[in-house]
Amino acid sequence: MFARTDSPTVFFPPGTYMLSCAQHWIAASAISMIGASASTTTIKFPSACTIGGDAIFFWDAKSGVRVSELTFDQNNAVTSVWAPGGGSGAILAMFAYTGNVNYASIDHVRIINSPGDQYITMYAVCCGYVFENGHMDDNYIHSQPAYSPNQCLSTTTVERSGTMRYMTMNRNICVGSAIQADGDNFDVSYNDISNFNFGTGIFGPSAGSSKYHSYIGNKIHDSGWTSRDTSGILIGGVEVPHNSIVCDNMFWNLGGIAINNFGFHNLICNNIAWNNNNAVPTVSPPISEAEKSAFHTPLSGGSKAGTGARYVGNKAYDTRGASARQLYGYFDWAGDAVPGITFSGNEFHGYLGGKAYAIGMGTNGDPNPVSMQDWVTLDRQVKYRVAAIEFTNIDPSFLHYNLTCSGLGPYPNGKIKMQFGTSTGPTWLAGATDYVTGGTYQSFANATPTTFLTAGMNAMTLTDNLWGVTYGSNTGNLFTAHFAALGYPSSGLYTMRYEAGYGLSTGWQEISSGFGYTSINANPITAIRLFSPDAGAINGNCVLQGIL
């Protein structure tokens, strides 16, 4: 069949077709293989043999080839093969080694009972030839996990010896091996990848200058190996090349990092990563701080590889309490941060020191965080007629905090006071000299408030004398306070900036602003509360946020 030179399409009726142990097939023309359906048409290998030579089914410089609706039952036969050009052997291999290829498809194929190797490959590995418009979609590949390089689906240019472009690898199920996508303009989406023991679920090598990839809607999970693979990395989710989109993916129960962003100017959005970083603590070399994160921008050889990335709407968390290993939602390098990264609407949580840890950054021995340019929600309190609205056990690792309350008011009428606390109790700071306030007030209406924030008893007090109107429970007040360096005091001083608005039926009428600091307490502030000692109760919808 493979000796035919007229590029036939060969149809396989339902049945099982047995191969001999020593054979492999090199196509003399663009021969296509189409089965009746993968559930009824099987090509089966002998068991307990080693299949040598080139790839088992091999096409080179043949355009228009399609392999579809077939099951390849490897029957645990070992494939110890090498295809021309030095690429690893595979069951199905299509190459641009001696000429260009335009269009090839391997779809609706099942590969089962495999002991572990490479399975479906499309390569452009020589002499500047181009392989384009290739499709590896809707396949099912189930293999024994291998600890050395192996892929269920693979493309490569061998560091730009040739060109791969306009490829799709969509809606595949890979159990026991992962995907390598090397080239330009790739769509690698809606795949389910699990139980693999080498590399990352989707590997888009930035070192070979791969670019313009879309990784959307993939599920990468349950890697089967909790040590380093033979290349020295922990089994992770995705390595991202340049100018790419990585959105709406899910990552769980992996040995390493969910998303490692090596590429320039990438959009990383709406991904969810939980309960990852499961390498055993005794792994060698030891696990770095970066390898305890869900999302990471590495300094690849000091070259700031992830410059210009945008992280939007991602979520990271660990549900395992004190046994959690995904300790950081995001990790970057303090003192030498990758430039141009922006963040918006992310919920980065981890687990560190017995409490939720939102965003971790820093190198070993350098815990100082780098600016994230994004507020992260730490806690929300929605209260009605309570003695106080309290935020306790605040993570002191952030550089800035933001407390915003809508519908804030005492019940029935009175003054609202804000107070800080330290330690785990907490110990509330209440001395007359704890906080000194000052600054200027800005009026955006026809009235100017007198004292909106005062020093003295119980730290800071919100007063009720805007226009002489009672600061009551039915006026829809908005209060925002910004605090800086609660966990990193300088000479025992804590600084803060506050803004408070007063709402009436005609809209927001007044904004006040100022600053304050404390000079007597050098411990990190761990608690904030709002209360009304003269009214006895308080209402409000309050959110505490942090930023690095």
Category by helix and strand content = mainly beta
Rg from Cα: 30 Å
Average pLDDT metric: 74
Globally, the shape reads elongated
How much of the sequence lies in strands comes to: 35-45%
Low-confidence stretches: 81-88, 351-373, 431-476, 484-522
Largest sheet: 12 strands, parallel
Strand tally is 52
Strand sequence of the main sheet, in spatial order? Answer: 1-4-8-12-15-18-21-24-27-30-33-36
Q: Termini distance?
A: 64 Å
User: How many distinct domains?
Assistant: 3
State the helix count: 0
Query: Share of helix among residues?
Result: under 10%
Task: Provide the fold topology.
Elements: E1 9-12, E2 15-18, E3 25-26, E4 32-35, E5 41-44, E6 50-51, E7 57-60, E8 65-68, E9 71-73, E10 78-79, E11 92-95, E12 101-107, E13 110-114, E14 120-123, E15 130-137, E16 140-143, E17 151-156, E18 163-168, E19 173-175, E20 178-180, E21 184-187, E22 192-194, E23 200-203, E24 211-216, E25 219-221, E26 236-240, E27 245-247, E28 250-252, E29 259-261, E30 267-269, E31 272-274, E32 293-296, E33 310-312, E34 315-317, E35 328-331, E36 342-344, E37 347-348, E38 350-352, E39 355-357, E40 376-386, E41 388-391, E42 400-411, E43 416-422, E44 427-428, E45 435-438, E46 453-454, E47 460-462, E48 477-484, E49 494-504, E50 507-518, E51 525-531, E52 537-547
Parallel strand pairs: 1-4, 2-5, 3-7, 4-8, 5-9, 6-10, 7-11, 8-12, 9-13, 11-14, 12-15, 13-16, 14-17, 15-18, 16-19, 17-20, 18-21, 19-22, 20-23, 21-24, 22-25, 23-26, 24-27, 25-28, 26-29, 27-30, 28-31, 29-32, 30-33, 31-34, 32-35, 33-36, 34-37
Antiparallel strand pairs: 38-39, 40-52, 41-51, 42-48, 42-52, 43-44, 43-47, 43-51, 45-50, 46-47, 48-49, 49-50
